[in-house]
Amino acid sequence: MRWWAAKVRRFARYFIGRVSAGERADLTGWLTPAQLELLDGMHPADQRHGLDVVAALRGDGHSQPELLLAGLLHDCGKGRRLHVWHRVGWSLGERYGTSIETGLSRLPTFRSAFTTLRDHAARSAQLAAAAGCSAATVELIRNQAEPTDPVLGRALLLADQAN
Length: 163
Hints:
Strand content: under 5%
Largest sheet: none
Helix content: over 70%
Number of helices: 10
């Protein structure tokens, strides 16, 4: 049930997730122009998700700038072209097996969308590096699904999964 509840929450967030003007103003004081541009290239739902991940990390007592920036930008490699049906299909494939991914990949746009979703951590890390993020931030993003840092990487994974 927890998996379904989390997925329904993310589904709704796809349509209503936004960054408020106040949150946006706070980000301009925290991010470099290149990092802000990277955030702007994300779907609004992924921007909201990143802010929620940062809030969860802070709520758990984390204040390391590298971790917080990784939490904010970890999905930037997804871009803006993924639609809700791509995300639903991907999640169902992760949950119920690759046959779902295989079947959906025959539909227009799904093969490229699934490639984007599969490779988004590496792509996000490349984009973060190009935007001037530290090596530590880049590595947290690159290894978000399988953390190599037992403390910060694990914290990012848990905050991502909870939001």
